[in-house]
């Protein structure tokens, strides 16, 4: 399924090609990577298994294309990004269909992701023109100990080749949030999509191809992590890495060269509920925050720390809302859909069983069929349970009862995770302006002036 005729050229037989030097290519490996549909647990798509030699060629062409792109005026870069955004939105249906099949994202959420991605690309084009269109002019008096003989101009210039590695849960949105800042800044981009989500990412890259970006500027390589993962992240031709995902990011940051890194990793996002809270509002937001896309979001609510005096009432309100969540395949727009892989489901089950063994209160019966896990609220969770600290990335929410706000804050601060960009949650923030700043370096030009004459005549 190539989605539509527009995408016909990106598939060869039943294997999706990788993208390099402005065209869609088959890998010389003759191998492919299967993509398992989380709902059927059967192979749904196949993508090329690229070789290290192919990665070398991709990075070589990325370096060549970047040199010319860096000379392209900002308004022209922005124009192409706006064009890509429009094409992306135009093809939201076939791309969303891939998200439904690859990552079991409910159809309405899948369409929203693609539209949001288009909006993000357009916003980045505008913001980039503003951020990068300004330099700084320093007058002579900013040079201490010197005569008034210097002017200084500073501007932002690109780093070179940016490697972007998005996660399975937002393979389009979190890819463009790296691609757009890199391109507007004058960099070239090499995208290594997640296996689950690779086909949606290839469709998205094709929208950039159709927009008419120069050859070699954007590449998308698919393949086995064991074959090309470390090879890419440790490649001497890569000048910057932007990564979103889990523990792999910590390994990347240890192995990568001395280059700028942007790491958006795991989290244990906490919600602290005090006695004076509006409990109906709290319950609605905890259910939305904890269970939308089956909890597979880095910004999901992953632990509720609730004051003992209101815990019984709140847990009942949350339970009433959880009971109304629909469970089933993503094609039917259910609230809770299968988690992405069997290993994810097994990990979630391990956390649930540990909580059961240690005496947590199960507000629903634990139920699982294949990768589909029914939503579960766990009350009376204690700090000796793994679920109190670990990130399930699934539809399971622990409630920890507390007796003071200090106790709640202490629990949050004791976590290995911080908010975005802190502790084990990563390095730096992935907002558009921050990304542009991270993907550029400051170039300083000092102009020496003639020595002034001090005669008073």
From TrEMBL:
Its EC number is 1.2.1.9. PROSITE patterns: ALDEHYDE_DEHYDR_CYS (PS00070), ALDEHYDE_DEHYDR_GLU (PS00687). CDD domains: ALDH_F11_NP-GAPDH. It catalyses: D-glyceraldehyde 3-phosphate + NADP(+) + H2O = (2R)-3-phosphoglycerate + NADPH + 2 H(+). Residues 24-421 form the Aldehyde dehydrogenase domain. It comes from the Eukaryota. It is an enzyme of class 1 (oxidoreductase). The active site is at residue 264. Keywords: Oxidoreductase. The keyword Oxidoreductase applies. Gene3D superfamilies: Aldehyde Dehydrogenase, Chain A, domain 1, Aldehyde Dehydrogenase, Chain A, domain 2. The keyword Oxidoreductase applies. GO terms for molecular function: glyceraldehyde-3-phosphate dehydrogenase (NADP+) (non-phosphorylating) activity; lactaldehyde dehydrogenase (NAD+) activity. PANTHER family: ALDEHYDE DEHYDROGENASE, NADP-DEPENDENT GLYCERALDEHYDE-3-PHOSPHATE DEHYDROGENASE. Belongs to the aldehyde dehydrogenase family. This is NADP-dependent glyceraldehyde-3-phosphate dehydrogenase. It comes from Trifolium subterraneum.
């Amino acid at each position: 399924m190539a989605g539509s005729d527009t995408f016909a050229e990106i598939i060869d037989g039943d294997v999706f090609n990788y993208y390099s030097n402005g065209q869609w290519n088959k890998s010389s490996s003759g191998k492919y990577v299967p993509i398992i549909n989380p709902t059927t647990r059967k192979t749904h798509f196949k993508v090329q298994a690229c070789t290290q030699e192919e990665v070398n060629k991709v990075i070589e062409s990325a370096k060549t294309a970047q040199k010319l792109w860096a000379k392209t005026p900002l308004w022209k870069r922005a124009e192409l990004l706006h064009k890509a955004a429009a094409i992306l939105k135009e093809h939201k249906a076939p791309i969303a269909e891939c998200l439904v099949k690859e990552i079991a994202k409910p159809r309405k959420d899948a369409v929203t992701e693609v539209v949001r991605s288009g909006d993000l690309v357009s916003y980045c084009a505008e913001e980039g023109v503003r951020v990068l269109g300004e330099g700084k002019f320093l007058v002579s008096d900013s040079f201490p100990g010197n005569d008034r003989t210097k002017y200084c101009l500073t501007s932002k210039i690109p780093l070179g080749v940016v490697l972007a590695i998005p996660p399975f849960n937002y393979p389009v949105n979190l890819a463009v949030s790296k691609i757009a800042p890199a391109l507007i800044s004058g960099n070239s981009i090499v995208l290594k999509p997640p296996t689950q989500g690779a086909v949606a990412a290839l469709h998205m890259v094709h929208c950039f191809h159709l927009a008419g970006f120069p050859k070699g500027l954007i590449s998308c390589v698919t393949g086995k992590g064991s074959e090309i993962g470390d090879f890419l992240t440790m490649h001497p031709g890569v000048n910057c890495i932007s990564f979103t995902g889990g523990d792999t990011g910590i390994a990347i940051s240890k192995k990568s060269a001395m280059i700028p890194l942007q790491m958006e990793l795991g989290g244990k996002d906490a919600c602290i509920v005090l006695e004076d809270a509006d409990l109906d509002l709290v319950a609605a937001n905890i259910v939305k925050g904890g269970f939308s896309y089956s909890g597979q979001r880095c910004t999901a609510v992953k632990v509720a720390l609730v004051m003992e005096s209101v815990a019984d009432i709140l847990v009942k309100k949350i339970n009433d809302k959880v009971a109304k969540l629909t469970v089933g395949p993503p094609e039917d727009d259910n609230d809770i859909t299968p988690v992405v892989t069997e290993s994810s489901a097994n990990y979630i089950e391990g956390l649930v069983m540990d909580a059961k063994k240690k005496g947590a209160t199960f507000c629903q019966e634990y139920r699982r069929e294949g990768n589909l896990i029914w939503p579960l609220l766990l009350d009376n969770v204690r700090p000796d349970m793994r679920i109190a600290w670990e990130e399930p990335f699934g539809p399971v929410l622990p409630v920890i009862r507390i007796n003071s706000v200090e106790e709640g804050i202490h629990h949050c601060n004791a976590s290995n995770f911080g908010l975005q960009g802190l502790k084990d949650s990563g390095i730096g923030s992935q907002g558009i302006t921050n990304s542009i700043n991270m993907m550029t370096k400051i170039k300083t030009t000092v102009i020496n002036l003639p020595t002034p004459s001090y005669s008073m005549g």
